[in-house]
Every structure is written in C-alpha cells, then in structure tokens.
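User: Hello, can you help with two protein structures?

Assistant: Certainly.
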Amino acid sequence: MESARMKPHPVLILSLLGASVVWGYWPVLAEMADTWFTNPQYSHAYLVPVFSAYLLWRARKDRPHGDEGPAWWGAAVLLAGTILRLAGSYYSLTWLQAYSLLPVLWGAALLLSGWSAFRWSWWPVAFLFFMIPLPYRAETLLSHPLQQLATYLSVYTLQTFGWPAFQEGNVIVLNAHRIGIVTACNGLGMLILFFALAAGVATLVQRPWIDRAAIVLGAAPIAIISNVIRIVTTTMLYEVMGKRWGDLLFHDLAGWIMMPIALGLLWLELLCISWLFVSAPSEEAGELDFSQQEAHLEYARR
C-alpha cells in the first residue's frame, strides 16, 4: 500500500519528460520556429503540434493506464535518437537534430508505459515530421524540377485556352509581359502543405487503408494543379488588368485563394474514391440480411 502511494503520478512524469525535451531541444526548436516565421513554405508548421495533440486527445480511450510496465526496447530507440541529436549537433545539421526528436519521443513512450503507449502515440509523433523544414539539399533538388513543371503546365494551359503564351526557360512570355517562375513560385510550399493536409484528412476519415493511401498520394497532383491555377490566373490578370492586379493576386491573395481550391480538389478526390472503392458489407449486416431472408421464406411457406 505504501509503495502504491509513493508511485509518481503520470501527469508529473509527462511534465518532467516534456520539460526535459524542451530544454534539450530548445536551440533546435527556436531555429525551426524562426524558419516557420520567415519562410512562407512552412507557415503551416505552427498548426502541426496542435493537430498532433488533438490526435492524442482523439485516441484518449486507447491511452495506457499504467497497467503495463516499460518496454526496454525503448532504451535502444531513445539511444538512437540521442546519437542522431549529437551527430546533427557535431556536423551542424539542424534538420538531423530536428528529426532525432521523433525517435526520442517514441523511445520515451516505450520506456514510460510500454507498447500500449507506443501504439497510442506513434502516429501523432510521426505527424510532427510535417513541421520540420526539409534539408537544404532536398529543397534544391526539388526546386528546379518543380519550377520547370509549373512553367510547362502553365504555358500548356494558357495555349489550350487560346492565349499566345510560350516558354523561355522558367519565364512565361505573353505578348508584352514576362512572368518569371522563380524559386518561390515552384509550388514546393504547396506540396509540403498539402501532404500535411492530406495526411490529416486521411487520419480523420473512417475509410479502409487503401482509400487513405490514395488520399495521401493525391496531395502531389493537388499541389501541382493548385499552383498552375495560381500562375495561369496571375498571367491572365497581367494581360487583362495590368501589373498592379497581377502583383496583388500573386503576392498577397494567392495563399488565401489556393486553400479553398485545394480543399475543393480534395473533396472531389474523396468523392471519386467513394465512387471507385465500395466498402464491403460488414458481417453484422450480412447476418442481418440472412435473417431477414429466412423470415421472408418462412412467411412465404405459411
């Protein structure tokens, strides 16, 4: 009885763990927050920890209640995260230090309450991946192909609508106007945002795993289509209404306009998935139909 009274409260343990993680990762978290504030590609990242906390709360019925002991495999996972943290600090790789936060949290969950805590928290912790800025080399490798693709598809769309546009490198030429598709317009920010959005939607909807995978994979075409719509609309405004209105849409309103368009495309994707993939009837429904058929046969015999 005395040992049960002296057992630490789970809230106290979690508070101490959270304080330790914040203290150990404070320089990394501060640098990430600065990137979120200064880089528009990661302006959504502030909402990622909030959504992860919501996922934990949403699955609160599955949370561990202290009956299961610690899983000592967590020590190995925690050690791996610590090694990544030290290696990132030694080689000045902020992205590696940030990614090391995920195994550290998984290892801590295993050590605190075993595999039940890991099953409860693994996906909310994994979702924190979307708040971590990509490595510079990854951004560089993705930037140029996305620029070329956005320029080509935008010119093709304009020509399809009958506008006399053509491509010069990453520049769209339309009569007297030259609209450059610079690095900031390559759609990488939309790609990152829509992958996070699609993963969140796939988590919340009650659908089979193949439907959820299709939702996540659909994030890339939605991001590309949304960026092309933005560029084409801006180019048309430059031609019809002048540079002032084109700059207004391109720099000030594009971010607000693209989100409803992306949500609409995501809704259409969900609609198409519901048409293409029909859920199989449950066993309970099958048993109910069979019992109803037996009742009808019995009534016919009478």
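That covers the first. Now for the second protein you mentioned:
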Amino acid sequence: MAINAEIIIEGEIREQPVPRLLNYLYDQEETGRLVLVQEGVNKTIHIIHGVPANVESSMRDETLGRYLVKQGAITEEDYSKSVEMMMSEGIQQGAALVKLGLIAPKELYNAVKDQNLQKLLTAFGFQQGQFRFYSEVEFIEKIYRFEYSFQSILKQGVYQYFPEEVLNKELRRVEPGEMQPLPGFEDRLSLFELEEPERDFARLIDGRKNLVEMMSLEGAFPFARRLLYVFLLCGLIGPNRVLSAAIRALAGGGKEPEARVDEIIVFPDSPELAEELEPEVRVSVKESTDKILEFYIQLKGKSYFEILDAAEQANDEEIEAAYRNRLEEFSRERFSADMGSELEAKLEEINTDIIKAYEALRSEERRQGYISELKAQEEKPKPRGLLTAEKFLQEGIKFVRGRDYPNAQKMFEKAVELSPSEPEYYGYLGWTIFCNPELDPEEKKQKAKEKIAQAIKMNPNMDSSHVFMGKLLQEEGDEQGAIREFKLALKCNPNCREARRELQNRGIEE
C-alpha cells in the first residue's frame, strides 16, 4: 500500500454491491484504489476523479493473452509461445506478442484497453467478499490510463454481469411512489449510449407508473429492470421525483447521496469542416494517432535510455540531442489540432516522461546513478511463481491431449500448489481427476465435481470450467444441467468451440 493512502470506506460486498460502490465513488469524484476480494480472487480498480481508468486482476483468465485467445485473435499455440518468451526474456505479455509478430504495435493499445474494460465489467459479478477503497494519487504515474464513459461502463456491467438475485434484492429496496424523471433527465440520457428500444422505454418514464408497473413492461423491453436500476442509481429518475437513497447510499456510512451532474457538451454538426479536410490530411491524422498510442502502451516498460532512444554509453551532448529529438517527435504541433481528450492526455504523459528521462540522464553523475539502479533491479529475484504455474498448466494440457490423465493431474496439482487462488487451475485439475482411470470411480467423481464447482464459484465467467461441469453432468445423466453449463460457457466466451459443438450435437443453436 502507498504510504499516503487513506482508507475511506470498507466493508462487505453483499451489503454494498459493486455498481453502488462505483456510482458512489463517481458521485464523490474520488481518486484512489478500490480493492475487491472474493473467494481468493483480487481485483484492484484504479479510479481517477470518480471514473475507472485501469484494472488489475489476479485471474489467469483475464490476462491479455487469454483475452486474445477468447477473441480468436491468437491461438492456444500462440499463447504458449508468448508465455515461453515471457519466462525466457522477462518481458510483459504484450511485448512478447508484438515481438512474436502475433499483434501489431499499433493494435496493442486497443487490445489492452478492451481487455482492461472486460476486467472491469466482470467485477460487477462479485457477490461476496470484501471491499476497501484507498484514497491516494501515487498510483497515477505507474499505470496505463484508459478513458471510458462512466455511464456506459455502468450500463454494460449491470446488463452483462450483475447477478439477477442481487438486482432483484436492490430493486425491492426502492421507496414507493411513481417513477418520475429528475432534472436534467433528457440531456443526461445521451451519456448512456442508448439503443433505440432503450430510448423508447425511457420515454415511458413519465411519472404515471410505479416501479412494479414499469418492470411489468419487461415483455416488450427485456432490459427494463436493469435499465431502471441504472437510472435510479445515477439519479436520473426517482420515486415521487426524489433521489432513491435506498439504492444510492452506502449502507452504514458515507455521504448523503447527491447525483453528480457532468456538463453535457454538445458539438454541432459541421459537414463543411469535414468537406474541407483533404483525404491526405485525414490519413496523416490517423497515423499520428497510431504513433501516440503505440509509444504510450509501451512506455511503462521502457528504461529512460529507451524513452530517449539513447545508448547507455551516450555522453552529455548525445543525451541532449536525443532529448531534443524526442521532444520534437512528440511535439503537440505535429499532431491534429482537433485531437480528442484521450489522445491529449496520452501525449502529455509521454512528454512528461521524456522530461523525466532527460532529468535523470543529463549528466554523467546522474546517468551512472540511474544505471546502478537498473542493475540493482535486475539483480533482485523476480517472482516466478505465476509463470511457473502457467508452465505446469501448459504441460498438463499437453498430457490431456495425449490422454495421459495421471501425469496431467500431477501437473495441475503443481499449478494449484504454486497459485492456489487461480480458479482455472482447479477446473483443469477437477477434469483430469474425473478422467483419471487409476482412481476409484465414485470417489473421483465426487472430488472432480468439488474442484470444478470451486473453480466456477471463484470465477463464474470462465468457459472452460462450465464445459468441464457440463461434461460431468452429462456423464451423470443430467442432460438439462449439461445443456445449462454449455450455454453458460458460450455466454462467457462466444468463441468457445467445444461448448458450441456440444449444443449443436444436441440440435441446439445459439
């Protein structure tokens, strides 16, 4: 924990659901770290002025490589190669994927941003465990910062991952009265990126129906309850034209709920401006965008010498020249005048780091001090547990493909021993226990089911464990249970071929 971090709020997630926590921090415009812990799974959401900017997750299933496998962007074999390179060269997975030619540098930023968003959205599925929010700012310089619309995040998270039973419990808390729009309702709707059916539903919130009556429209609008919850949470609507404190306030503490109202900036349509831009200008603007994002996403892993593109043996004059060249390369004047706010922030951060690099290297004395720091960092023993566990998993998967289940089980047991909080390892271990011909049939069935259920409990959004559970239930003769699990696997990962094949074999199309 950072020295200056202060715990602002903490408690049980079952009492303060994740959407309410995030909305509260957004309304208060807090900056800090929200740490969520459930069944040994940890997520840290870095928040700047109330808006999530970066997420760290302890789950293997949410690493960049696994995300790209799920998206069909790389294969399992590609993933294994990237892990090998990470272990042998001590580099991050993104750098390994670029070096292997599996992803272009200009695509890396968007891939990491999308992966980061997915890690954030799955946090909405946390039902149990603890949360703690630390108010601090030190982390800002150490993380990649991504720009998201808070309202869009909230809607996606509630729609996709917020548990049905928790949603219903929350809605039962709403005070009685007709649902009425609150001031600014019409203007603020644009923040939620509503589809046409959602806009049609929003028009029906006119103060004539209470919450139960509004929810009864779910036949025509399947999203009704979830959108109502989002609107209540954000203070767009309320019973009898009053904010719903029961939905918005933190149980047992926190400031009184007061909805944050962001300034709505409306940009007039300017077709004339678009016509004035020559095609060549548009191309150069796009290339400038790629250049900024490419450099930014690799910035945190670069040494100061690499930031300036200078050799460690460089003298004062060469460092000065490299510094001037970098400043010129990323000068604001070289890029589009109407650059968006996200790119503006990234460019500013790049230039800040260029200046920091120069200050650290501009004299022989400072360079030698920095080189000593680099060597000291290299000599520190690096934690290899997670990557070694991953290596055991990969070896285990090879044994599974060769139907050598006893040796596969040994590999997965070693992976679990090294990383006992990783859900996916339990899923694979459970499946190989079930398939191991050397074990007692009844005993292994029970043990396998326990391990796979544990994996699902720790991470309900993991397709492999749902597939394993579906096959196990199929063996038990529970056909409906098996179909349910295969459908869940496909929901977790639309590219899960095994789940799709199992459903297609049953004549079920998804």
